[in-house]
């Protein structure tokens, strides 16, 4: 049974995708806003223009 679970895990691992942007996870947790994958520096300056 253990070998079956191991083989299933190895098979599933082939289709897993790597996380892109994992370096920004800390910023997301802190509540930094992102728009289209880019960090929004000052949202108010865009509204004033």
Count the strands? 2
Structural class: mainly alpha
Tertiary shape: rod-shaped
Distance between the first and last residues' Cα: 64 Å
How large, in whole angstroms, is the Cα Rg? 20 Å
* Average residue pLDDT: 79
Low-confidence stretches: none
Strand order of the largest sheet: 1-2
**Percent helix:** 40-55%
Number of helices: 3
Main sheet summary: 2 strands, antiparallel
- What percent strand? 5-15%
**Secondary-structure element order, as H and E?**
HHEEH
Give the helix/strand layout.
Elements (H helix, E strand, L loop, with lengths): L1 H12 L11 H6 L3 E2 L2 E2 L3 H6 L1
Antiparallel strand pairs: 1-2
Describe the structure.
With 49 residues, the protein is mostly helical. The protein has a domain at 21-49. 49% of the residues lie in helices and 8% in strands. The protein has 3 helices and 2 strands. The protein has a two-stranded antiparallel ribbon. The chain is rod-shaped and about 60 Å long. 0% of the residues are buried. The model has no long low-confidence stretch (mean pLDDT 79).
Summarize the structure.
With 49 residues, this protein is mainly alpha-helical. It has helices spanning 2-13, 25-30, 43-48; strands at residues 34-35, 38-39.
List keywords for this structure.
rod-shaped, 8% strand, mainly alpha, two-stranded antiparallel ribbon
């Amino acid at each position: 049974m253990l070998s079956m679970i191991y083989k299933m895990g190895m098979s599933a691992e082939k289709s897993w995708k790597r996380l892109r942007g994992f370096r920004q996870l800390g910023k997301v947790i802190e509540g930094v806003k992102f728009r289209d994958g880019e960090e929004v520096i000052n949202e108010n300056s865009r509204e004033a223009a």
